[in-house]
């Protein structure tokens, strides 16, 4: 009897691990579809819990605590860039996979842009302190290009009011590109 239970438990465990890995692999590939927009070779991280989840405030609190405890400007810049990429991907998922979540997606995109601006600010501070920022500036540049690609992809999928918001975010991305070029 115990052999059957062990076998059943083993099969259940393997199935659960396989299902988890298959779901994670699908989630990372979900944003790779495009129309006529130039593809940027930069993978955005899967955001995990989306802002429409009732427990999202816990994730936000955790992220604020993490930011509070980071002290080096490059560490803060990398964390802000990660948050920006997650918010951009979350906004993309809200637009493409959720119905009626356009306003929340636009708010999420805007928060991602704010995080991106903070990442640039922290990179500028690191440069002033004498840190090497070459790798970080390359990451910022690729991330900015990817954010622009995603915003261009969704521009046609949203209404006229939201399209204006998308254009504002694209203008912010263009201003960010100038700031990134000035870092080099």
Describe this structure in words.
The chain has 184 residues and is mostly helical. The protein has two domains: 1-30; 49-183, no CATH class. Helix content is 76%, strand content 0%. It has six helices and no strands. α3 runs antiparallel to α4 (102-128), α4 runs antiparallel to α5 and α5 packs antiparallel against α6 (160-183).
In short:
Helix content is 76%, strand content 0%.
The proportion of strand residues reads under 5%
What's the gyration radius in Å?
A: 19 Å
Helix-strand sequence: HHHHHH
How many structural domains does the protein architecture include? 2
State the end-to-end CA separation: 68 Å
State mean pLDDT (0 to 100 scale): 83
Sheet with the most strands, sense and barrel status = none
Low-confidence stretches: 22-35
The coarse silhouette is globular
- Count of individual beta strands: 0
Helix/strand class: mainly alpha
Helix count? 6
């Amino acid at each position: 009897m115990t052999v059957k239970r062990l076998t059943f438990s083993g099969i259940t465990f393997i199935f659960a691990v396989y299902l988890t890995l298959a779901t994670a692999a699908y989630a990372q590939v979900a944003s790779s579809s495009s129309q006529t927009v130039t593809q940027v070779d930069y993978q955005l991280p899967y955001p995990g819990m989306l802002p429409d989840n009732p427990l999202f405030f816990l994730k936000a609190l955790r992220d604020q605590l993490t930011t509070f405890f980071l002290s080096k400007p490059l560490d803060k810049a990398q964390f802000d860039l990660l948050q920006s990429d997650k918010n951009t991907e979350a906004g993309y998922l809200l637009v493409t996979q959720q119905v009626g979540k356009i306003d929340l997606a636009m708010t999420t995109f805007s928060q991602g842009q704010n995080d991106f601006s903070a990442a640039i600010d922290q990179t500028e501070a690191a440069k002033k302190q004498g840190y090497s920022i070459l790798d970080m500036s390359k990451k910022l540049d690729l991330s900015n290009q990817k954010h622009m690609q995603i915003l261009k992809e969704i521009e046609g999928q949203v209404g006229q009011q939201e399209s204006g918001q998308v254009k504002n975010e694209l203008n912010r991305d263009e201003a960010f590109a100038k700031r990134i070029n000035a870092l080099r």
